[in-house]
Fold this protein.
Amino acid sequence: MPKMSCQRSDWRERLNANPSRMEQELAIRLQEDGISYQTQVEIPVTTADFYFPIELRPVLAFVDGRVHLGKTQMVKDEELRSLLRKKGFRVLELCYHNYSDKKRDELYEEILVSLGKSALTFRTSNQPDGPE
């Protein structure tokens, strides 16, 4: 696996494909909160938008915009994701119709919940300590 860097601009380099705005915004939030992830990870049958290397069962996140909402694509996605689940991955499907900051925040919260974390924990733990 490639080594992760903590520089602010890394999310652009880590999104190898042509990421949607939603994927870009989620990557920025993940990096700001110090959450370890990889993007556009090739799994034998597909490419995950985000890969979270959780020890027992890695999480594969797919950020699905409009193109994934058609019936044919939905069937194809479900077949692939069922196979991934059978291979031991946890699959997180993040669906949206249009980009909005509110929807981005909802999808980000879904990621945190799937990782066993909460946004409140990150916002309070990543704040600099004040005077004592």
User: Anything to note?
Assistant: Helices lie at 10-14, 21-32, 71-86, 101-114, 119-125. Strands lie at 38-43, 46-52, 59-64, 90-95. Residues 71-86 form the longest helix (16 residues). Confidence is low (pLDDT under 50) at residues 1-9, 122-132.
